[in-house]
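Annotated sample (chain length 375).
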Amino acid sequence: MPSLGAVNEILPVSPPRAWAEIDLGALKRNLAVAREAFGGELMAVVKAGAYGHGLEEIAKALASEEIAFFGVANVGEARRIRNAGVGTRIYLLGATWSEEREEIVARDWTPCISSIEEAEQFNRLAAARGVRLKVHLAVDTGMGRGGFVAEHLPEKLAQLERMENLEVEGIGSHLPSADEDEEFTLRQFAQFHAIIRDLGGESRFRWRHLSNSAGLLGFDQGCCNLSRPGLMLYGVSPLPGFQEKLGTVMSLKSRVTLVRTLPAGHGVSYGRQFVTTQPTRVATVGIGYGDGYPRHVSGKGADVWIRGRRLPILGRITMDQMMVDVTGAGDVAEGDEVEIFGSNIPVAEIAEKAETIVWEIFTGITPRVMRCYKA
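Output written by the structure step:
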């Protein structure tokens, strides 16, 4: 159970009601699974606060693992990694805004290029500093979010190569449905390989990357020598057949704050969605949708884990609390630890009941949930 030191010598500081235990050893073991499955170099995707796990701590934990890049969404995330003292190369995963580009050049981060206009500004900024900026050519093979479409790519690359202060060292694209549509994904791989061939072959690009976690685990990588694992690093496989290879990284926990016996006919939570049919022992747990636990699981049969048992959530999830049926569950008492999700309650199960995806559950855990790290 996490604890805090006293703010001063007079007043004690109570431990948190809700916290997330982050297992850095499991994180590194999952990275090893990705490395073994791929066989090439890796870009660890740490955007969105390392999928809610804590950007700085995750970056520091992975910095010694000889990865090629950290993948981030924006310059704010890149800056936080550098300010944490981590020197691993940083790659910006999407198109950049014009006001961000001077900092990117100044700090020697690696952008992907989605338009000639973007490249021209990078080239001018790099020339003004007397440097040559390494960039990657972004190609849209079906995601529809950024990058050059395949048509006229040789001409576009020729334009980029005439920009003296840019070095096109890589080429990348993205898989929109590797966990859902095998046939389309195979066509994407074939198209990407054909694009590289038509642009001069593998030797033309130092880095060639297409795969996210699902692509890395489920498909032959062909000419790609760099992969971008994200979700699998955090212990969840987008392809269920690989789940047993991965270890749980985040365990979301809380504690029982109150235990009472309610009579038959007594409503539980807002809207009286659940009404007891017999005397029921109910534990109140100090976590709710204000902490990021999805309200949409209300009434969907979601469980928590207390004292080695699955126990059902009753009624609607509230902002700061939830209620759990502990009838017949032994001596459940105030202060008992509750696993909301983790090794006993898979986060994928919660996502399914909430009719969402694991990515949203992880990134939705709010700042008031303390992250506690263990090696």
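Annotation: The chain has a mean pLDDT of 96.
Annotation: The first strand starts at residue 19 and ends at 23.
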